[in-house]
Amino acid sequence: MTRKFLLNCAIPVGVIITAGTLLLTGCGKNDGGAGGSKKQAIANIGSDTMVNLAIAWADAYSKVDPTVSVEVNGGGSGQGVAALINNSCDIANCSRKFEDKEIADFDAKHPGKEPKEFMVGYDALSVFVHKDNPMTEISIEELQQLYMQDGKISKWSHLGVSNIPGAKGDEVILVSRQNNSGTYHYFREAIVGKKNEMRLGTVDMNGSKDVVDLIAKTPNAIGYSGMGYATPAVKHLRISKKKGEKAVEPTIATTLDKSYPIARPMFMYTAGEPSPQIKKYLDWIISDAGQKIVKETGYVPLPK
Amino acid sequence: MQANVTDKQTAASSSAAATRLKQQRGRAEMMGERAIEVVIHLCGFSAIIFVFGIFFFVFREGAPFLAKLNIGEFLFSTEWFPTSQSHAKYGVGALIVGTLSVTSLAMVIAVPFGLGAAVFVSEFCNGKSKETLKVVIELLAAIPSVVWGFIGLTVMSPIIIKTFQVPIGVNMFNGALLLALMSVPIMVSIGEDALKAVPDSYREAAIAMGATKWQLVWRVLLPAAKNGLLAAVLLGVGRAIGETMAVLMATGHSVRIPHSIFDPVRTLTATIAAELGETSKGSDHYQSLFLIGILLFTITFVVNLAADLIVKGIKKK
Q: What's this model's pTM, rounded to 2 decimal places?
């Protein structure tokens, strides 16, 4: 009886506490924006692919300019765009360009302004398999037949691979991402094609790192994730455009000379011209010091 | 004479002041009590306001999509292509099957353990061991679901691959096992309360007639407490259906109709959690996710209502 009573009390109390916290944090944010005497805060929200990089930049920049603190949040490119439109961030991280609909939404909220684009580096997608998998390369065509709805390849034997140590059965476990992540969008466009659907029944992980973690534990699996997420427990494959053509290793050089077929630029967006402080931060990101961090975190820096 | 009169007057006026003071204090106390009453009422009603508020907002976001949608297709189609560029499809059939299959498998595992533990704690256990068991079981309920999910993803997944010789370790079985572990504490707590509510005279009568412990539990206590135990199970079901983080990480999150308990599946809750963050507000995809929210709301509402009605049933008896 007492337990039920406690439960009944706990729910409204919990709700009130949560609501109170939300209100408080909401107010706190406004204060941070208005109070100029304290540290200037730059809110930086967006792409999950870029979140490790954005945090590394923010950490390093706190030493360059101690009066500024950059607050980084992930959530995905779409979330960054939404935050920029709703004025709840200063810089949106985006592993793709603004979509037409998003530009229209932006114009509606910010008449006379345009989302200003800064290219800050490249992200190469690697195709990963378990470290014991004997496979070393795969073609775009094969990837398409694997990941396309009604594609022809669903068994490892179709790919000419047998005897994967530790594998159970012949089934290929396709690892993918949730269907609105920037990585998923890019992979679908680059591999499956705009007119086709991704195969239903892929195992959709909720983060770039989760993909690698799952493949490391699953000998039957294949999946894609950012090049920077490689670990010793997984193996990346060389990619060829067509079967029989030369397969290319995902590296900085091959990304920059565009011979590696699945790489994309990463962007940061501001609403119109950035303020001097934000401009300084973006300039620092594009400088040698900022681009060095791009390389260190496993992404591909801008060409010099 | 004169002095006497003034004495009397002052005495009278002071006694009048005293009664006025008493009245005033009475009024202040009354006001205080009123205020506290109002506050307590507000606290009581706030729960209702919050529930209806949540329902209203979820419905407002999701309802516009109902008009554009073929309900039959939404509920029974297994094609979930919400972000397709050529022809988006919103069929949650596979997700409903996923939620129901994971939940039922979890219950198949959890009910014997949960009710068994409730019987053990309430009937076979005394003093220290009873207290320790109760504390430990409640500790089990305090583990955050994301921790369960992490255990499922990193610890159980390779074990399941090796033990059952299956190609993938994040699957329905993995998720159901975690959900079972998460709903057992609720079942034990509520189930034990239900058994405790059975009058001792039943036990004494059974023992007096020469019943063994097993006969006492099976033929007397379980039938007598069956409503409460059913309510315990239903609350466990509600917990399992509504759980998100653990199933998102451990079930494999894959849109398909499972053919075995070792196939990955995807649940309604996990779909909302994974996809809502990056949809643009007001889009069809966004609204369809809220529609899934309404669906979940309905399912858990029915389950909780059933549990409540059953508990009320016991009280009447």
A: 0.74
Tokens of B263: 């196939």
Largest pairwise CA distance in chain A:
73
| Paired tokens of B72 | 């039959």
The domain A6-122+265-296 is placed in CATH, from the list 1.10.4030.10, 3.40.50.920, 3.40.190.10, 3.40.50.970, at 3.40.190.10
Give the closest of A101, A173, A200 to B280, CB-based. Answer: A101
Question: Any idea which residue has 């793709």 for tokens?
Answer: A96
Q: For the CA atoms of B292, B295, B300, B306, what is the dihedral angle to 10 degrees?
A: -170
Domain range A124-256, its CATH number among 3.30.450.20, 3.90.1310.10, 3.40.190.10, 3.80.30.20: 3.40.190.10
> Domains of chain B: which residue ranges?
2-67, 76-316
Question: Searching chain B, which residue's CA lies closest to the CA of residue A196?
Answer: B86
Residues near B306 by Cβ (< 8 Å), separated by ≥ 6? B234
What is the structure's pLDDT at B291? 93
* Superfamily of segment(s) B76-316: MetI-like (1.10.3720.10)
CA distance A85 to B204: 71
Mutation for testing the A interface, residue in B278, B280, B289, B300 having most A CBs under 10 Å: B278
B49-61 mean pLDDT: 91
Question: Which residue in the block uniquely carries the two structure tokens 């630029």?
Answer: A265
Q: Which comes out higher in pLDDT, residue B269 or A15?
A: B269
Task: Point out the residue among B44, B83, B255 whose CB comes nearest to the CB of A201.
Answer: B255
Tokens of B267: 């649940």
Contact A252, A61 (CB under 8 A): no
Q: Cβ contact (<8 Å) for B82 and A179?
A: yes
B157–A202 CB contact, under 8 Å: no
